[in-house]
């Protein structure tokens, strides 16, 4: 299938492509393994959460992973964490929302596609009105991928937290709309909140050091199997769950 340029003006073709796109699972597994050896994140679970996450993954139910966002290194440390957790068996079947600019340079796009990326045209980059139709289509595609058995990883804060890494920033309603639409397709997703900490950061606007990234702490909350009904309520619930996960990641750094 032809791979279109990831441009807002061609968003219909872009999302037609990513509705069906499937990365090479063996390459993804190899890449995640390399990242796990490079970064070696310390992975901690809430009480009883590891067994419950493992059981959820084996159940075949679609899952949304809500993850906090601290730096440009996050996709790599998250991938390393997936390898070192019960999520390893789902590598190659997890879609990851990523800003559209990551798809522009060919080599970067190859890496993002390999990791299961789905592009997001953000209002902060293109204007709220300009991205409305594309955003609606993106949420539909995500819901359809969940209904087809994929999992979905989202940084629901939408951008790197350069305010306070210990406090989850505003969560938009997009994650709620995706979960709501998946439920309408008879595929209600479970939620797992995962948080990372790179340790104390005197200036959150400065990227963490290589040493901090390599010693990242990750914390898994127990899965939530029943979400609120309305998108806005889901988003608020996600923020609360993610804050609990951030508290755990910070405490275990």
Automatic annotation (TrEMBL):
<keyword id="KW-0012">Acyltransferase</keyword>
<protein>
    <submittedName>
        <fullName>Lysophospholipid acyltransferase family protein</fullName>
    </submittedName>
</protein>
<feature type="domain" description="Phospholipid/glycerol acyltransferase">
    <location>
        <begin position="63"/>
        <end position="199"/>
    </location>
</feature>
<dbReference type="Pfam" id="PF01553">
    <property type="entry name" value="Acyltransferase"/>
</dbReference>
<dbReference type="GO" id="GO:0016746">
    <property type="term" value="F:acyltransferase activity"/>
</dbReference>
<keyword id="KW-0808">Transferase</keyword>
<dbReference type="InterPro" id="IPR002123">
    <property type="entry name" value="Plipid/glycerol_acylTrfase"/>
</dbReference>
